[in-house]
Write a structure and sequence with these properties.
232 residues, alpha/beta, Rossmann fold, six-stranded mixed β-sheet, 9 helices
């Protein structure tokens, strides 16, 4: 494993409000990482900086040794919290679009996953349920052979029966030399797949370490620790 993400004194301000405050964080490759924190803690801001949608106010951030830019965007696969695929397109046409746009897109894998999730490739996006739209978006993201996968609330709208399959899909289909960052409030659902945990609050790092080490040291689950750290 090698250093994949490095943040040094990373700060992002929106006017007088600091979403990230002098954040120092190093994350390795080959990990599934839970990015956890209450609403307004800076999770989505950090993800958007990593995928190049936001520019830091101060500090330094790199991915695979490269400053954020065109080269890092080519190796990052991003799932935003909100639906981004055009509602008028059919699922199969979205697959063609991704195949044309991303050289690392693995269409046979995407088709197989969607079939297993019982998503009709001929359906238009506007006719899909909210859960199936989220399944399509997640499959598109995980079907790229990226170095970093950034998943912002990937299972929030998916029924519990599909969550295990989706989480297993994340485990088995990402590049083993890559890392997956999952931001979610559904900690109990994802805890079993996490290698590392990062907890932030008001832009400050509160907890960072191996999920197993944290459980052994604290004698509690990640979900229980989250409730303790962020108790009102």
């Amino acid at each position: 494993m090698s250093e994949l993400i490095k943040c040094v004194n990373l700060t992002k301000s929106y006017g007088s409000k600091e979403a990230l405050c002098s954040l120092d964080l190093t994350l390795e490759s080959g990990k599934i990482i839970g990015l956890l924190g209450p609403n307004g803690s800076g999770k989505t801001t950090l993800i958007k900086i990593l995928c190049g949608l936001l520019t830091p106010t101060d500090g330094y951030v790199s991915i695979d040794g490269m400053k954020i830019g065109a080269q890092t965007k080519a190796i990052v696969s991003y799932l935003p919290e909100r639906t981004y695929i055009p509602s008028w397109m059919r699922v199969k046409h979205i697959l063609s679009y991704f195949e044309d746009f991303y050289a690392d897109f693995r269409r046979p894998l995407a088709e197989d996953m969607l079939t297993r999730l019982k998503v009709d490739l001929n359906q238009k996006v506007k006719t899909l349920s909210k859960g199936n739209k989220e399944k399509v978006q997640l499959v598109l993201v995980m079907s790229r052979n990226a170095k970093l996968y950034l998943l912002d609330e990937p299972i929030a709208g998916v029924d519990p029966a599909a969550r295990d399959y989706i989480l297993d899909t994340i485990i088995t289909n990402y590049n083993p030399d890559a890392s997956v960052i999952i931001s979610t409030h559904l900690i109990q659902d994802i805890e079993r797949i996490l290698d590392d945990v990062v907890m932030i609050q008001y832009g400050h790092l509160k907890v960072h370490g191996s999920a197993d080490a944290i459980r052994n040291e604290k004698g509690m689950s990640i979900d229980q620790l989250f409730r303790e750290v962020f108790r009102c």
